[in-house]
Design a protein that fits this description.
435 residues, alpha/beta, Rossmann fold, 4-stranded parallel β-sheet
Length: 435
C-alpha cells in the first residue's frame, strides 16, 4: 500500500525558490504582491525563500507551467542557493509536477495549493479543523496518485497481463476514496451538531468577523470581548471558530464569531471542506468585513473576500466594512478618499482601541435596523398555541395566567406582517416594542 504523504514541508527552514508567471493583463506590481504573499505563506510553513523566478507568458505551459528554458534557470538558482524546494504560485496539474520533477531531479516541487494545505494542517487544533483539513488534503491528493507506481507495471499490455503496479494504484485510490467518504460523514455529523448549537443561540444577535487573512480579526475580537485569543503575525493563525458573548451596551449583548481568514487562490478543496465552519458567516445577522487599510492592495483583498462570500452563499448578509490599522496611515487624505469610496464604513485600530465606540454604535444601529424586540399578549381562549410563534420569532421570556400568555419576543422586521396577523387573530393587545 502506498504511504499517503500529506505534509509537504518536512522540516523548518527548508531553502526554497518560488516561481510565477505574469500574464499580459496583470501588472508587475500585482505579481510582486502575489509573490510577497507566497513568501509569507512559505515563511508561515517554515521555509526560507532564497530566490524567485517570474516568466511573462500569455498562459501556463501545459507541460512545465513555465518554459523549459526558464526551468533551467530555476535549476541554476537551486544550485546557487543550495535549495531543496520549489514552490509555484498557481496550482500544478499532476502531469506538470511529474515533468518538472523529472527536470529538477531530487528537488521537491509543490504548488500554492499544497503549501496552503500544509499550513492548515499545521495550524488545525480541534477535531473539526483536523477533519476538514484532511478531507481537503485527500481530495487534492487523489488525482495525484496517478503514475506513482508506473515503475512496477512495465509489462506487455493486454488481457490477463495487468501489472501489479496498476493493481496497487487502484487499491490506493479505493482506500483514499473510502477515507474521503468517512470524513464527509463525520463532517456532516459535526455540521448537524453545530446547527443544533446555533439554534440554541438564536435568541442573540450574531455578528461574524470576516476578512482577508492577517487583517486583524482576532485582535479586534480581543479588543471587543477582552478575550485572550492568540494573535500571531502569520497567515491563517486562526482556523477554528471562536465565539464570544460581548455586551455592546446596557441592553444589547451579541455573539461575535471569529473564524478562518480568506486569501486569493484559496484552494477549492478547503472552501468545500470548511463550509461547516464558514456557516457561522453565512448564518450571521451581521458581517463585519475587516480590512487592513495599510495594505497597498486592500481593494483587491475586499474583492477576494466578496467572491468567497458568494461561493458560500453569504453575500446577501448585511455587511459593514471595518477598515483596521488606521494608526499606520499618516496621510489623512488617504483615509478621506477611502471614506468617499466606501460609504458607511468604519475606521478603527483594533490594537490601539481606536474607533471601537463608533463600531459598537454601528452594530447597535444594524440591530435596530433589522430586529424588533416586543411584547405580545395572546389569549388561550381564542385558540392560541405557542408553536405558532416559533417559525418567525424567538421567545425571550414568557409568563402565563389562566387565560393569557405574555411573550417577550425578538423577530426580524420582515416578519412584522406575521406578528400583525397573529395579534389580529389571537391578541387582546397590540404588539408593544421594547425600547
Amino acid at each position: 500500500m502506498i504511504e499517503i504523504k500529506k505534509n509537504y514541508i518536512d522540516s523548518k527552514n527548508e531553502q526554497a525558490v518560488i516561481v510565477a508567471i505574469r500574464r499580459p493583463e496583470v501588472s508587475r506590481i500585482e505579481v510582486d504582491d502575489h509573490l510577497n504573499e507566497l513568501k509569507e505563506l512559505a515563511r508561515t510553513a517554515g521555509a526560507d525563500v532564497k530566490a524567485q523566478v517570474v516568466q511573462e507568458r500569455p498562459a501556463p505551459d501545459s507541460a512545465y507551467f513555465i518554459g523549459k528554458g526558464k526551468l533551467e534557470q530555476v535549476q541554476e538558482l537551486i544550485e546557487e542557493h543550495n535549495a531543496n524546494l520549489v514552490i509555484f504560485d498557481d496550482e500544478l496539474s499532476p502531469a506538470q509536477v511529474k515533468n518538472i520533477s523529472r527536470v529538477l531531479e531530487d528537488i521537491k516541487v509543490i504548488d500554492r495549493t499544497a503549501l496552503i494545505l500544509d499550513i492548515f494542517a499545521d495550524h488545525a487544533k480541534s477535531s473539526e479543523a483536523k477533519t476538514q483539513v484532511e478531507l481537503a488534503q485527500l481530495n487534492y491528493l487523489l488525482p495525484r496518485l496517478t503514475r506513482q507506481w508506473q515503475h512496477l507495471s512495465r509489462q506487455v499490455g493486454g488481457i490477463g497481463t495487468k501489472g501489479p503496479g496498476e493493481t496497487q494504484l487502484e487499491t490506493d485510490r479505493r482506500l483514499v476514496r473510502t477515507r474521503i467518504s468517512k470524513l464527509k460523514i463525520r463532517l456532516a455529523e459535526i455540521d448537524k451538531q453545530n446547527s443544533t448549537r446555533r439554534q440554541h443561540r438564536d435568541s442573540m444577535y450574531r455578528v461574524a468577523l470576516i476578512g482577508y487573512t492577517n487583517a486583524g480579526k482576532s485582535t479586534l475580537m480581543n479588543a471587543l470581548s477582552d478575550a485572550d485569543i492568540g494573535v500571531e503575525d502569520k497567515l491563517f493563525a486562526t482556523l477554528d471558530t471562536t465565539i464570544r458573548r460581548v455586551p455592546i451596551n446596557d441592553v444589547l449583548t451579541v455573539l461575535i464569531s471569529d473564524t478562518v481568514g480568506f486569501i486569493r487562490k484559496l484552494p477549492h478543496q478547503l472552501v468545500a471542506s470548511f463550509r461547516s465552519t464558514l456557516s457561522e458567516s453565512s448564518e450571521a445577522d451581521l458581517l463585519l468585513h475587516v480590512v487592513d487599510i495599510s495594505h497597498p492592495h486592500y481593494d483587491e483583498h475586499i474583492d477576494v473576500v466578496n467572491g468567497l462570500l458568494s461561493e458560500i452563499d453569504a453575500h446577501q448578509n448585511k455587511r459593514i466594512l471595518v477598515f483596521n490599522k488606521v494608526d499606520m496611515i499618516s496621510d489623512q487624505a488617504t483615509i478621506q478618499h477611502i471614506k468617499s469610496r466606501y460609504e458607511n464604513s468604519v475606521f478603527i485600530s483594533a490594537s490601539r482601541h481606536i474607533g471601537l465606540k463608533n463600531l459598537k454604535k454601528t452594530i447597535i444601529q444594524s440591530f435596530d435596523d433589522q430586529y424588533v424586540v416586543g411584547e405580545l399578549h395572546l389569549s388561550f381562549s381564542k385558540g392560541f398555541n405557542e408553536h405558532l410563534v416559533h417559525n418567525f420569532a424567538t421567545i425571550l421570556e414568557k409568563k402565563y395566567d389562566d387565560d393569557m400568555v405574555y411573550l417577550k419576543v425578538k423577530y426580524h422586521k420582515e416578519n412584522e406582517y406575521r406578528i400583525t396577523l397573529l395579534l389580529e387573530k389571537y391578541g387582546v393587545k397590540h404588539n408593544t416594542p421594547i425600547a
